[in-house]
Structures are given as structure tokens and as C-alpha cells.
């Protein structure tokens, strides 16, 4: 499972790193609505939520499906404007001005992105502004979120212009209430990180830059495809003529553990990556490795073998006697556990002993959470 970005023929100068204030506001709103995803931000989310005006808090609930369970592409409008610069603005106001230039159909499709996540790679299907079936589907999905979200979606489809004005004012009020001050504090670090990675790209190449962005990112030897290791399938190109060539990397202070990849057709691809933090020091392995480990532990016999292997080192013959199965059967189960990186094996004279790596097993829960949220 992965998201791939075709960069074949993309000039290095079309790969850029830049902070994006509107995208960061999206991540801040997500952290406020899903504090359990971001325990390291507990102090900030608690203080900010406590200080929010009740009217603003209620207005945020109406549109929270754009940042609560998914991340609407409207927060990266620079990536979806044909003929634009393809780079985020320096301020929240500049990003909102770019958002104002987005046409209604693209705006509505991006705002209601949660309704057609399964069709994301195909551009979301027909527009609910024109297609009655798409409209009904969008409203049904909004109704499942709650009556306020349904009311907002009806207004969005019936009077798009007024909702766009309403949404801009909402985001501006967020800026005044908490984000402008937060952005002043965190933007210098993001700008410094963007400059550092741009210099790394220039002097050491894309593979070196990607290694510093995230362990979940890689590029093939031919420098034609960037791959993001995520629990989702997707593909896009950085040379789409509809928006012009380019690939943008955007840092975030609020993003961990999420690694977002904007890969909608007709949009410039964007990788929204969390800045380095203590939590990133032990980034888990690939999604494939996580699946392998969980599958290895799911078998009843291997679970019983692990009960012994967690307590002390055992040989294959010892385990066969304890559990009443043949040594070849034990060997097959141990091979699965070893392939998943769950065993230590050592030789003691003429005996080979196996023991469960408890530190790796203990990380599976956190690795699973990071993997599904990445």
C-alpha cells in the first residue's frame, strides 16, 4: 500500500519546500477536534479550546468534516489553481485570496471530499452542483456527520457564494482568535526547515532530502517515482499540464503522526510532512512490515509459542515437546516470526535458541496507530 508520485522529467528546480499557513491552520483545527491523535499537543489544544469564544466553537462544528476525519484539499488552494505559482502564500490572508480564485465546482468537490474518498484517485466523480445523484450522496454523507454538517452542506450546494464568504470569515476569525499568534511563533522554524531541505536537495539530491523529510518517503534509483508508504493506494503526477509541473513539500508543527499526500487528479501533488520531533526518533518500519508482524502474531499456535519465547530462550525441540507438535512445524512457525523481525536467535554450543524480541512486540501498538494515521 502506498501513494506514488510520477516525477519523470520533472526539473529539480520544480521541487520546492515552503511553509503554508492555511494548510497549517487545517492541521491546527484537526488537532483541536481530534486531541487523542496528538497527545504531545495536549497543552496547546487544552489551552486553545478553553479560550475559544463559544460562538466560534459552534461555527467550527458546522464545517469540521473538512479537517476532523479527512483533510480537505481546499486548505492547499495553491496546488489547485491552473496557471498559479504552485506555491503557498506567505500569510493566511494570501492563501485565502488564492482560495477565493478557485472555481465553485473545484471548491465544492474539495470541501465535500469526505463524501468520495473512495473515488479520490478519479477526481471524486460527477459534481454535486450538476448531478442530482452526486448531490444526494453528498448530503447523505453529511447527514451521517450530524445535523449542523448537513445544514452546512445544503447551504454549500444551494448558495455556494455565501458559504465561501462564511468560510473565509470563519478562518479569518480563527486567525484572530489563536492562529495568527501561533503562526508567528512557529513559522520561523518552518521557514528554516524548508530552506535547509531545499539546500539539501540542491547539493545532495532528492534521495537525501527525502530521508530527512520522512522515513516513509523514498524515490527509485531512476528518480522517476516518489513513494509514500501509507495505508492507502493512490497515484498522481507532478507534470500534469492542467496545473503545471511541480512538487511541493510543506512542513507542519501540528501534523505528527500524519504524513499527508495531496494526490487528486488535476492538482499539483503536495507532501505535508511533520517536522522532526522526539517522537520521530524511532519511526516504525513500513506498512508492509507492520502487516507482516500483526499477521505473524495472529496465528493461535504462534501466539502460544510466543508465550514461552517471551519468558526465556528455547530450542525448536524444546518447543515441540512443550506444545506437542513436530519440530518441522515449530520451525515453520519460527520462520514466520523471524521474517517479521520478532525473534532473537543465538547459538549456544550445538543448540540454537530463539527468544521473542519484547521491545519490537511492545511497539506494534504504537506502530499500528502511527501507520493508520500516517
Describe the 3D structure.
It is built from 14 helices and 10 strands. A 4-stranded mixed beta sheet has the order 3-4-1-5, with helices on one face. It is of the alpha/beta class and 374 residues long. It starts with a strand and ends with a helix. Strand 7 (260-262) and strand 8 (270-274) form a beta hairpin. Mean pLDDT is 88; it is low at 277-284. It has helices at residues 21-33, 42-51, 54-62, 92-100, 104-111, 132-145, 147-158, 160-204, 206-213, 287-298, 300-309, 316-323, 327-339, 358-373; strands spanning 3-6, 15-17, 217-219, 225-228, 234-237, 247-252, 260-262, 270-274, 343-348, 351-356. Helix content is 50%, strand content 12%.
Mean pLDDT: 88
Q: Please give the share of residues in helix.
A: 40-55%
Structural class comes to alpha/beta
Number of helices: 14
Radius of gyration: 24 Å
- The proportion of residues in beta strands is 5-15%
Weakly predicted, low-confidence segments: 277-284
Largest sheet: 4 strands, mixed
Morphology: globular
Number of DSSP E strands: 10
Termini separation comes to 12 Å
Major β-sheet strand ordering: 3-4-1-5
* Topology as a string of helices (H) and strands (E): EEHHHHHHHHHEEEEEEHHHHEEH
